[in-house]
């Protein structure tokens, strides 16, 4: 009888939306409990903070940029002259260095004639990264495809012996042509054939949560299109600065690139 009761209880529990893991390091996420009624208006470094509800309790998810210094940080809100802060402690993380050989040398040392294009694309990418909409957000992500995940987020990168910016996402190795699925519902806010990223798509998942998919062989969506979770947005390819076919997936939160692996169970 007791067993039956337990079974009944379990079946009546609501299915919880799973949250990303907290990781209080540069490139990580701070998960902060808020009081009901106090969820609106918090900002981190002057950017609005994402707030989701778990079992009726508001939870703030804060993206911590790779450039963030270790030490005490806070989200804050200003309410009729009053400043309220929630503090958290960020630890140092040493990311390793990765050396990569790129056959197409122009993708490492572009020609002078490439620079106008590269700068124009950089501006579009920056704009997409900090895009913000009030749309409701589902942070329970699915993997865009089954493949070999590499835990290379945050690694310092040296291309053909030259230092470049750290790796801003997760690489998933897969054959060219494998469909790439939207990890959560979103709106297509940027796309195109970019010099370094190849064919790329940016999705706005709402409240400053952004996905970027790069090196696609094919783009299956249009600018401004609303996509549902699991919908095909493109195909794996080897366009842009790559050593072979794979999906590059970046997740931005309040303008910061964070480790996509935090949205999935196991450490890597
Ligand atoms: Zn990558």
Folded structure, characterized:
With 268 residues, this protein is mostly beta strands. The protein folds into 2 domains: 12-90, Peptidoglycan hydrolase domains (Immunoglobulin-like); 97-263, Glucose Permease (Domain IIA) (Distorted Sandwich), CATH 2.70.70. Helices cover 10% and strands 39% of the residues. The protein has 2 helices and 21 strands. The longest helix has 15 residues, at 115-129. Mean pLDDT is 91; it is low at 10-15.
Q: Over the alpha carbons, how many angstroms does the gyration radius reach? A: 20 Å
Order of helices and strands: HEEEEEEEEHEEEEEEEEEEEEE
CATH level-3 fold name of the largest domain: Glucose Permease (Domain IIA)
**Second-tier CATH architecture of the largest domain:** Distorted Sandwich
- Share in β-strands: 35-45%
Keywords:
mainly beta; Immunoglobulin-like; Glucose Permease (Domain IIA); 2 domains; eight-stranded antiparallel β-sheet; three-stranded antiparallel β-sheet; binds zinc ion
């Amino acid at each position: 009888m007791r067993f039956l009761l337990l079974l009944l209880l379990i079946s009546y529990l609501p299915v919880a939306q799973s949250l990303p893991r907290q990781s209080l390091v540069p490139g990580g996420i701070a998960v902060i409990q808020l009081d009901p009624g106090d969820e609106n208006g918090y900002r981190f470094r002057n950017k609005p903070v994402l707030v989701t509800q778990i079992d009726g309790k508001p939870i703030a998810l804060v993206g911590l940029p790779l450039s963030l210094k270790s030490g005490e940080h806070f989200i804050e809100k200003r309410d009729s002259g009053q400043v309220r802060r929630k503090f958290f402690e960020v630890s140092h993380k040493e990311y390793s260095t990765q050396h990569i050989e790129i056959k197409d040398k122009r993708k490492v040392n572009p020609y002078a004639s490439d620079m106008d294009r590269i700068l124009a694309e950089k501006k579009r990418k920056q704009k997409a990264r900090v895009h913000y909409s009030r749309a409701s957000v589902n942070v329970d992500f699915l993997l865009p495809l089954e493949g070999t995940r590499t835990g290379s987020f945050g690694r310092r990168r040296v291309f053909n012996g030259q230092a470049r910016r750290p790796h801003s996402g997760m690489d998933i190795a897969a054959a060219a042509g494998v469909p790439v699925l939207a990890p959560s519902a979103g709106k297509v806010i940027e796309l195109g054939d970019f010099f370094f990223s190849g064919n790329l798509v940016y999705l706005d998942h709402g409240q400053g949560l952004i996905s970027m998919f790069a090196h696609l062989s094919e783009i299956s969506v249009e600018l401004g299109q609303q996509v549902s979770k699991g919908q095909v947005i493109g195909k794996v390819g080897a366009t842009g600065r790559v050593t072979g076919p794979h999906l590059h997936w970046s997740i931005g939160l309040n303008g910061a690139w964070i480790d996509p692996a935090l949205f999935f169970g196991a450490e890597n």
